[in-house]
Amino acid sequence: MPVKNRFAELHDEITAWRRDIHEHPELLYETDRTSALVADKLTEFGCDEVVTGIGRTGVIGVIKGNSDSSGRVIGLRADMDALPILEDTGVPYASKTPGVMHACGHDGHTAMLLGAAKYLSETRNFNGTVVVIFQPAEEGGAGGKAMCDDGLMDRWGIQEVYGMHNWPGQDAGTFSIRPGAFFAATDVFEIDFQGKGGHAAKPHETVDTTVMAAQAILALQTIASRNADPVDQVVVSVTSFETSSKAFNVIPQGVSLRGTVRTLAPETRDLAQTRIIEICNGIAATFGGTVEIDYVRNYPVMVNSEQETDFAVEVARSVSGECADAPLVMGGEDFAFMLEERPGAYILVGNGDTSPVHHPKYNFNDEIIPAGCSWYAEIAEKRMPAA
Ligand SMILES: [Zn+2]
Ligand SMILES: [Zn+2]
């Protein structure tokens, strides 16, 4: 069965919601307007329960099926936040907030899940309960974790969760997915070397932190090349090198490095953290300086569970005929926290030949709305068939 006819009928309406959200982008947890819009729509659709303020500005809607003898509860999730980017799309509904734009398509995700919620509230053609989850702060703020910490899964008895992201470069409206590890853990670190500053012409009287930091940058590359199993993926990138003095003739007292670590397995993540600390401490000791290392674990590896991924593939095939194998993604995804708490699956829906996400010219492709809505709706209908 291709996309649901109802979504062809609703296409213009859902597109209008999407463009309205696009015009009014909001960052991280500051999704007040978007959250209010979502809550109003869910109430208007006749959801059995609409709750705001979960994970600060997150919103949930509960939709009960025609029967509930299955006792099943499925969570469907979308993200609502935008990015601090100056929009350059030139579309008539471009951001009205300079420097903030929906450059990751979360406007589209929110609109598609609203569309599915409208349809599911109208039809109720399933045996169980659907919880639609709208989260803030996907872009680095761990809004998904905040919702979980507020008891999202237990409070509504959610048993499985499903999410979706649009994917530029993949044919519009087609799906791709992979079981197991899918998106990387995204950790960050700050390494602060301290030595003894002094005159650049008298290095013997100093403890030179630029040399320490330079050695560290090179040595950190051996985590991927010499420490990690070659079949495991790990990226260690130093992205900032800041000296305490910018002068030509001063050996700086301190150097601060910043960077990120991307891994796809918990053991590799532990290994990278341990080795960064060991290597930097070793280098500081070797050169007579000291070091402080602040390693922050951000989003964990996002892991699709096997059975739910198979089911997501079946639904994707039913909507668009096929479902491709997606490559591993070294970017991070906040949905990882929800998948740590419950089995489920995260799928990519093609955005067609558009600019990549996080680019000033990126725009969500409204043509894919019926496919995305259909996937969300059929996850509920097929997982909890009407009695
Ligand atoms: Zn993004
Ligand atoms: Zn995104």
TrEMBL record:
Q: Which positions in this protein are listed as binding Mn(2+)?
A: C104, H106, E139, H165, H358
- Coiled-coil ranges from the UniProt annotation: none
Extract the Pfam families matched here: M20_dimer (PF07687), Peptidase_M20 (PF01546)
Q: What InterPro entries does the record tag this protein with?
A: Amidohydrolase, Bact_exopeptidase_dim_dom, Peptidase_M20, Peptidase_M20_dimer
Comment on bound cofactor: The Mn(2+) ion enhances activity.
Q: Do the record's keywords include Iron?
A: no
Domain of life, per UniProt, equals Bacteria
Q: Which cofactor does it need?
A: Mn(2+)
What would you give as a GO molecular function for this chain, any one?
A: N-acetyldiaminopimelate deacetylase activity
Q: Is Metal-binding tagged as a keyword?
A: yes
Give residue ranges for domain Peptidase M20 dimerisation.
Answer: 189-282
Record's Gene3D superfamilies? 3.30.70.360, Zn peptidases
Enumerate the SUPFAM superfamilies for this protein: Bacterial exopeptidase dimerisation domain (SSF55031), Zn-dependent exopeptidases (SSF53187)
What keywords appear on the UniProt entry?
Answer: Hydrolase, Manganese, Metal-binding
Q: Which GO terms describe its biological process?
A: diaminopimelate biosynthetic process
Protein name, per record:
Amidohydrolase
